[in-house]
Specification:
Blueprint lengths: L5 H32 L1 H20 L3 H31 L5 H40 L2
Helix pairs in contact: 2-3, 2-4, 3-4
Length: 139
């Protein structure tokens, strides 16, 4: 069995690298689109930053950080999927239709469920130590 010349392997690797790099570029384009166009993404962003600041101030243990990151990630993923679903529905159903509305409403509900769950997780993990820290500084 003959093997391709070495330069073919290098070219194949280079093509693979650029293909992967392009996929990351497209993913970041999608991320930037959501940040630019979705009002709720700004709210998610501000809340995410606030949670990171408070969790740092509280010096939460690593496993609590992992849970917070997972909760925040779930909300962001739901927001991204909601935006994608809205775009596909708008593309396929330019005229109002009850099923198109239903698809958009259910996708938005997924974001809401994720956000409520993340808020509950945040309160469970950060509430008690935050309460203690605030009680210690109050006069």
């Amino acid at each position: 069995m003959s093997h391709p010349p070495n330069h073919d392997l290098v070219e194949l690797g280079r093509t693979e690298f650029y293909s992967r790099a392009r996929s990351f570029h497209y993913a970041f384009e999608g991320w930037w689109f959501v940040i630019r166009t979705q009002h709720n993404a700004w709210i998610h962003g501000l809340v995410s930053i606030a949670v990171f600041i408070v969790a740092s101030w509280l010096k939460l243990p690593r496993h609590d950080w992992a849970i917070l990151v997972l909760a925040i990630m779930a909300v962001w993923m739901a927001e991204f999927m909601n935006t994608a679903i809205e775009a596909v529905v708008d593309l396929t159903m330019p005229e109002p239709h009850p099923l198109a509305k239903l698809a958009k409403d259910v996708a938005a509900a997924a974001v809401l469920v994720g956000a409520i769950g993340a808020a509950i997780i945040g309160l469970l993990l950060m509430g008690p130590p935050l309460w203690e820290k605030l009680a210690a500084i109050s006069f």
